[in-house]
Structure formats: C-alpha cells, structure tokens
Amino acid sequence: MGDTPKDLRYTKDHEWARRQGSAVVVGVTSHAQEALGDVVYVELPKVGDTVTAGKPFGVIESTKAVSELFAPLSGKVVKTNDSLVDEPQLVNQDPYKAAWMIEIEPSDPKQYEGLLDAAAYEALLASGK
Amino acid sequence: MARKTPLNAAHRKLGARMVDFAGWEMPVQYTSVIAEHEAVRNQAGMFDVSHMGEIVFKGPGALETANRLLTNDLARAADGQALYSGLLNERGGFLDDVVAYRFSADHIFVCVNAANREKDFDWMRRHAVGVAPADASDDWAQLAVQGPKAAAIAQRLTAFDLSKLGTYRFTAGGVAGKQCIVSRTGYTGEDGFELYCAPGDAEALWYALLEEGQRDGLKPAGLGARDSLRTEMKYALYGNDIDEEHTPLEAGLGWIVKLDKGDFLGAEALRKQRAEGVKKRLVGFELVEPGIPRPHYPILKDGQRVGEVTSGTMGPSVKKAIGIGYVPPELAAEGSSFQVEIRGRLVAARVVKTPFWKRG
Predict the structure, then answer these.
(1) Residue contact B33–A64, C-beta within 8 A
(2) A128/B213 Cα distance (integer angstroms)
(3) Interchain pair A63, B343: CB under 8 A
(4) Residues 6+ apart with CB under 8 A from B122
(5) Domains in chain B and their CATH numbers?
(6) Structure ipTM over 0.95, yes or no
(7) Do B242 and B251 touch, CB atoms closer than 8 A?
(8) Closest Cα of chain A to B243: distance in Å?
(9) Distance CA B325, CA B282 (A)
(10) pLDDT tens per residue across span A72-113
C-alpha cells in the first residue's frame, strides 16, 4: 500500500483529489482500480454540470460490475477527461495521472482540507474497509 | 460456509480473487478477466469447474429413464457421445440446462449446474420411471482446458489419440497419469476438453496441465473470463438467460428439443407453445451508442417496455458492448432496433447475428 501518492487527498470511497490552481482534479485510486478489475467503460458528467460532495458524479464499469463514482467535494465541472471514453483501460494502467476523470471548480474550497491525507487513506485500506 | 473445490488451495497459491458462486468459493479472476479471456481465444485457458454436479443413471433402462426427463434424444446418440439438453418442468420451463453423456444404453451421466444440483436430483428422483438416479457430484472434480492450443497441450499428456475424439465425443482415458473422462466439450466457443477426474487427482492434474501448457501460453482462467467467453457465443447461462419461466423454444434452443422422440417432461407444454407461437425470443444485440447492457436492464420500443436484458458485457474479443435478452418475436429479426434503458438513459441497440464472436 506504500504507493499512495503523498500529495493527494482521498475519500473513503477510493477517489483521489489533487489541487490544481483554484481547481481540483479527481480520479480513482490504485486500490479502486485493482478491486474493480479490467475497466471497460467510464461515464462522466458534462462540463458545466454541478457535483455534490459524497454524491455520485459518474459510473465506472469493469467486465463484471458497475460502480458509482463519488465526488470528493462540491462544485462545477470545468473539464472532463474524454480520453477515458476510448481508453477506459487507462484507469488500470495509470490511475493517478492519465486516468484523471474530472476537474472541479469547488464551491467551498475548504472541503479539500476535510479529505483524507495519504496516511489516513492507507490506514483505511489497512483496516480493510 | 461456501463449499470448496479440491483446487481451492491451488487457486489461492495462484493469487486468485475468490467469490461466492452458487454456494461455492470459486476463482473469478487470477490476473485480469480480459487477459484470461484472450488467452482462451488465442492460446489456452484452464478453468476449475468442479462445482458442477453429476447425476448418474446406471442399469438396464437407464437411457429410457433419462430420455423421459430430458429434451434431447439419447437414443439418437452413439455410445461415447454427449448431448446438450434441457431438463424441463411440466410448463416447459427450464429446471436446468445439462450435458448428458451416453456411456451406453445402461449408463447415462448428466452434468448439471452447481446451483441446480439438489433441485435437479430431487426432480429426477421424483419423476424417474425405471432407473433411480444417483447424485455422484462428490465423486467428481472437473477441469476445462479450452483454446486453440488445448488439444496440443492435452495430447502431450495422454496416450489416447485426441484427433480421433470429435466435438461432443468423450472417452475414458489417462491424462498425466490420472484416470479421467475426457470430453471434447466446453463453454467458450473454442476447441477444448472437459476432464472429469477423482477429487483426489484434481490438484495433480491441474498442475500437470499448467506446467505442460506453459510454453503454449496456457493461463488459469476464472469465472469472469468464462462469462465473457460464453456471452460472446450467446451460450445461455442458467439463472440469467434461462430459468423456470422460459422454455427452450423461447430461448432459441429448439434444436435441443426432440418432440418426435416420444414422451418427456415438458413435451406437452412445448407442443402447445409451438402450435400457438412463442411470445418472446432470446436475441443477441449490440449497443450502437455508448454504454454496457447488464442483466435486468429494461428493453424498450417506442416508449413501451417490451423486454429485459438477461446478460451483457463489453466483449473482449468482439470489442463491442453486447447483450442477450428477451424481446417480442416481431423485434427478434437480425437488424431489428430497440432501446436499452441504462440508468434512466435510453441507448440504441440492434439485433445482430449470433454467436457474436467468430474467428476472423
């Protein structure tokens, strides 16, 4: 589990968030992609949509299962990663970089501080939840 | 507590992810569903299918007894031939889909789905006229070696000339020194074998095949790949595509029903249904817009719900989102269009020729 990037924040639902200027980039963790198995489909919101912290913002499907993606914080979607439409396998190959999913302009930037840091997320994984 | 096959420790040693399937702890994948799927299509894959049940009819009249329970006609098979068949209730609905092996007219061996083992055995016991069935499931483990390299791999471990064993033929023989029923059958659309052996021999046989197959690219494959492979062939999965509410005629499996063979359970209902015409048909379709069809998603036409998806996946070989589902007969022809409701969104779909996958 030591490969959890230290510069990101995390949710208990296995999404990561990265500050980028005033925006926050969101994806799923390596643990999530491993648990999902081969990712074959990703459904993301449109630019301009609003997302709410803790609520689903999209869907990720593996060969077998359908799972929801949960927004780490509330705000407006300003960018989406369209390359995941044709290359959903990027989620398995490079979950923290190439497979970023959406960029959010947060409505309450302080929400970022409330997310788990790498140590807390690793502790969560170690607890098996 | 889930039941364990004799290969449970072997799966764990290989790092398999285990899931509960029909009350059994089974490997769903070892490394990746797609990689295992592709190994079966391009080289070879090996599955543990020891959870399957085996019910045996032995004694004078075994064939006649089994023939009255099953839809296919064992009298038309040769000794050493296996037949895919339905086991139906009085309404013509599937209690199970099975493979019946004719050792001789006095010895019929029926491989049944794990989830239906007790139900099937109970049904057969109550309805058998002549020879009483025996549940021999605990006497057998089963491995499936499937893929274009399967025959070459198996041949190196047996003295029997496998080129003499045709599709849906079987023989008793030694493989890697273990006594097996070697059956040229499978659930993947590829050439290959299902090997029935004693539970105590399963682990040795598994490792012998794994080692022998290594240079041919043989991989252990889990239930995930088994499902995507069979879906690409539109092979029915009991509990998804067929069940007690659906008949072989509705499921497009009229070819396993021999209404002219004499009486069998469910025949009357099927005769009636054939005369009246079926009200729904199981079709294969692909999505023509983004999405993946999944079991229980509604099928709509002109805003009306007309059917339901029974199986669906992103086909790793066909590289398309494919599905199986029941629709009214007027929407069953190739090229017919309808919509699948995916999370409230209507996604266009088109009926296509099946199997979805054919070697190019």
Answers:
(1) yes
(2) 36
(3) no
(4) none
(5) 3-47+140-232 (3.30.1360.120), 53-137 (3.30.70.1400), 279-360 (2.40.30.110)
(6) no
(7) yes
(8) 21
(9) 5
(10) 999 999 999 999 999 999 999 999 999 999 999 999 999 999
